[in-house]
Amino acid sequence: MTAPDAPGARTTHAIGMLLIATLFFASQDALTKHLVQTLPASQIVAVRFFFFALFALAYVRRRTGIRAAFRSRHAPLQICRGLLLSGEIIVFAYAIQFLGLAEMHTLFACFPLLVTALSAPLLGERVGWRRWLAVICGFIGTLIILQPGRGVFDPAALIALCAALMFALYNLLTRKVARDDSFDTSLAYMGVVGFVGAMLIAPFYWTPVNATEAAWLLCISTTSIIGHLLLIKSLELAPAVILQPFNYFILVWAMIIAFLLYGEVLSAASLFGAAIVVASGVFIARREYKLTRNARRVRADILPDAGGKLP
Questions:
Q1: What pLDDT, on a 0 to 100 scale, did the predictor assign at position 1?
Q2: Residue 20 in 3-state DSSP?
């Protein structure tokens, strides 16, 4: 019988927590789609980041202290990263006014492909021919999603792809700063700078809210915090390279919620394109996991005195 703290059990628990986290994130987007019909996207995001910033500060205060969390070797990049994330969420919330929830997520699912494609020129990382082939296949899948019934270059679809590009750039900056900065530092900057970034826009479009809208805003903020808590815990139990493929489960939740709440049904062509995008992303994630594992084995062989342990 497997012990609860065995690696296999820890990974299983991490995957379970991540799947629940993606459910909360999909629910958050569904609430955003409802609320953005009456409130500006920037205002919704500003409220979300206000509560998330409080959560981030409380979290790092218990672990390393707030002052220590803001000590960064890449402060300018951390600031750019926070501004980029808040901008991306505003663009996402704006686009979801014009696109279905499921359709939005099928387009947004291409962001890991953009991360891989941009990691070579921006981070100097080597991308092998297998991953480049997967990127090309994924982009073909994206074109299949875009084309049925709306044309390849529909403006609303381009807004969604813009959000995916911004999120890919955010991920690349996260990967870069993570080489020297701790997770607590990245979390603190993300929360505080994200809130400041949203507030640079929100006051110009601020709209009075009624009691119902205030309740929905609180629900959105709560789902965001719970989702991130589950995400953080899952990353404590298992490496990100193992968990990455399961992030795509948010697309499944989005399709289910979109059907139940809005009666959305994706066309067969869109489902086929989404399957290609997801399969390409999963292949890239598995390939990166294998490369990381092999690199660790090589370093363990080179440094036998370290017992295979890596810094």
A1: 40
A2: helix
**In degrees, to the nearest 5, what angle opens at C-alpha 203 toward C-alphas 197 and 206?**
125
Distance CA 131, CA 205 (A): 42
What DSSP string describes 150-179? T-TT-HHHHHHHHHHHHHHHHHHHHHHHTT
Tokens read off for 8: 């296999």
Predicted confidence (pLDDT) per residue in 185-201, tens digit: 999 999 999 999 999 99
SS3 66: helix
Residue in the structure block whose two tokens are 């598995």:
286
Residue 70 parent element (H or E):
none
- Taking the CA atoms of residue 34, residue 40, residue 45 and residue 50 in that order, the dihedral angle to the nearest 10 degrees is -110
Domain-by-domain residue ranges, the chain?
A: 15-306
SS3 229: helix
Burial class from Cβ neighbours inside 10 Å (0-12, 13-18, 19+) for residue 207 reads: exposed
Picking from 241, 258, 107, the residue whose alpha carbon sits closest to that of residue 168 is 107
| CA 67 – CA 268 distance, rounded (Å) | 52
296 — pLDDT class (breaks 50, 70, 90): low
CA-angle at 111, arms to 218 and 275, nearest 5°: 100
> In whole angstroms, how far apart are CA 83 and each of 23, 51, 127, 231, 232?
25, 16, 28, 21, 21
What CA–CA distance (Å, rounded) separates 106 from 275? 9
Taking only Cα atoms into account, the Rg of the chain, rounded to an integer number of angstroms, comes to 20
- Both structure tokens of 266: 């994706």
DSSP H or E segment with residue 74: none
